[in-house]
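In the previous lecture we treated proteins in isolation. Real proteins rarely work alone, and many bind small molecules. This record shows how such a complex is specified: first the sequence, then the SMILES for adenosine-5'-diphosphate.
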Amino acid sequence: MSEIALRNVCKQFDSEHYGVKDFNLDIHDKEFVIFVGPSGCGKSTTLRIIAGLEEITDGELWIDGELSNYLEPKERGMSMVFQNYALYPNMTVYGNMAYALKIRKLPKDEIDRKVHEVAKILEIEQLLDRRPAALSGGQKQRVAIGSAIIRKPKAFLMDEPLSNLDAKLRAQMRVELVKLHKQLDTTIIYVTHDQTEAMTLGTKIVVMKDGLIQQVGAPQSIYDNPVNLFVAGFLGSPSMNFFRCTVKAEENNRTALLLDDAKTVKKVYLDGTRGKQIADRYNGRHVILGIRPEDIYELDEAKKLGIENESADVDEPVVNREMLGAEVILYFDEQGKTLAVRLSPENQTQVGEKVSLYFDMEKAHVFDPETEENIFVS
Ligand SMILES: Nc1ncnc2c1ncn2[C@@H]1O[C@H](COP(=O)(O)OP(=O)(O)O)[C@@H](O)[C@H]1O
Ligand SMILES: [Mg+2]
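The predicted 3D structure, ligand included, written as tokens:
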């Protein structure tokens, strides 16, 4: 059992430097919580606060109903796994995993049983006699995780544990961590700057920027309903496309968004209540339109979706084409930035060729240019 709550938690290093500000979060038993955000946003600081490695300057940390601001790290029942594996080089894998239990003076046969049990879960039984120097990066990381698991903590705290691994191994370890979370049935709090890790691992994502929480929620829910421009741009790869637009209410109850200085798409429409909402508040003014690469289509697909009357008018050629096997991503120049469009791999449009684009405006987001808030979510 573990319930962790942070209430108005602040960490101020000195008069200018904040780690986190007014951090409020409930972490429930067995959740897989991800702190995600760009470098320096306060992820590690928050994790270290939970671990007891960093003192809070203001606010409260509650663990299982107990105010724990000043609890010693070892009294908190947490296990931490770092980016650098922190294995003892002179001990075997077995020795590394058994170490924490030996210190607790557990009987030898019990230690032996536990080491084998955990080694089996992580599929490292065949490595038990090796020393860390004879292991690959991925194997070392498994041993580090094994050493953490064996203590049966209330929660695992992981700080970018996969960032030293190559892309393929990282993808494999992501799958294994999800499996491990199910098997262990414990809380995991996991720090990463990688939005893919956040999306694939978490049951709950905490998006952070400049020491402040931006949004908390399930991965899909945040992806579909980002509260502001930052969250919208941070989750998703390639990122959501943004365009400066002017709002123009038209006669037949339609709301047009005219893309400022646009080369590719000149004009799109928002219909129904969403259109009305924008027209009421912003007619004649600027907004920022956001649309994900997968919500932009070519004519054939647009026809199937019935959105072929939405917009087209492309004068600009494809500047880059990435064939990724299961999808193809076309890039255009737009408003001095790159517009990315994700299409099916059958699409044969090459660099230098022109193509008509259609936006699925049902999926579009509109942001206030001053507050940067998502008008349809906030
Ligand atoms: N010991 C420290 N003294 C001063 N500033 C610090 C200290 N540790 C971290 N910071 C600052 O706090 C902010 C958050 O750091 P950190 O939590 O490590 O970010 P993240 O893990 O998200 O990259 C950064 O601006 C960092 O420079
Ligand atoms: Mg960090």
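Summary for your notes: The chain has ten helices and 20 strands. Residues 241-367 form one domain.
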